[in-house]
Amino acid sequence: MYLLHRIIFTGLIFISWELNAQVALPTFQAVHYPPVSTGSQTFSYTGSQQTFTVPSGITSITVDMTGGSGGYYGSNTSYYGKGGRVQATLTVTAGATLYIYVGGSASGVTGGYNGGGTTTATGANWQGSGGGGASDIRSSGTALTNRIIVAGGGGGGNRDEGVPGHGGGLTGGDAPGAYGGKGGTQSAGGVGYSNQTYGPNGSLGQGGDGDTYAAGSGGGDYYGGSPGGSNGGGGGSSYVTASGSSSITHTQGYNTGNGEITISW
Question: Which of 13, 26, 64 has its CA nearest to residue 264?
Fold first, then answer.
């Protein structure tokens, strides 16, 4: 009996071993996702809207941007407002389209593209120049209210005492003196001497245009600077959305010439 039991037990073990040898056991392998690529793209001044599509897998971008500078009149080449600079990290959605506006520098009495104020002060005693245009990025639309980051433009100078205000910062730079233009803020445009004596105050996205007796126009911006009298125009303010933004740095009076926007991811 003992021998029979042993033979049966040995046979069962052999059959079990054969079954296990023929059954393929499942294997587990790690899932490999393609790496998210990094890169950067720089947008220079074109005088028109440009676009950027957020790459796949990207949820934040780093932006480094500058606004355009204001103009100078005649030989006073140092009398112009410099554009502001803004650096920030912004939360974005992969595949979304961002609308890019690179501000232009002023050309004579004509304000720079994207909000620089213009002046008509070209007489013998009142000779002004335009303000620089702002640079900005817009999301979910192209209206001024869709802007998520802005670098303000510089104010325009004049012939004699034409030191203007620089663009940039939460409040744009004021031109010196009682008659100088005032910088835009986060909630209103710059208010000029005696409230619009030399032309309209700055407004959302627009520097104030100078009239016949204005020596300099305001810079374009989040809110624009006002035109000035015997001094130059005020600078435009910069802006960064409070939603999903971080690592924000504002620099006032940074850039000469046209603006620029660099996006890194």
Answer: 64
Distance CA 84, CA 150 (A): 9
Is 5 part of a structural domain of the chain? Answer: no
> Does 21 reside within a domain?
no
SS3 of 21, please?
Answer: helix
Per-residue pLDDT of the chain (265 residues; tens, 9 = 90+): 444 454 444 444 444 434 444 444 445 455 555 566 899 999 999 999 999 999 999 999 999 999 999 998 766 777 899 999 999 999 999 999 999 999 999 998 899 999 999 988 776 666 788 999 999 999 999 999 999 999 999 999 887 666 899 999 999 999 988 888 999 999 999 988 766 667 889 999 999 998 876 667 888 889 999 988 777 899 999 999 999 999 999 999 999 999 999 999 9
Backbone angles phi, psi at 90, to 5 degrees: -125, 140
Tally the domains of the chain.
1
**97 occurs within a structural domain:** yes
- Calculate ∠ Cα 94-99-102, nearest 5°: 130
Is position 15 within any domain?
Answer: no
Phi-psi region of 20 (alpha: psi -120 to 50; beta: other; left: phi over 0): alpha
Domain that includes residue 127, residue range:
40-265
Distance between CA atoms of residues 250 and 86, nearest Å: 5
Q: Quick one: how far is CA 114 from the chain centroid?
A: 12
> How far is residue 200's CA from residue 195's CA, in Å, rounded to a whole number?
8
Q: How far apart are CA 63 and CA 165, in angstroms?
A: 24
Burial of residue 170 (CB within 10 Å: 0-12, 13-18, 19+) is: middle
pTM of the entire predicted model: 0.84
CA 187 to chain centre: 18
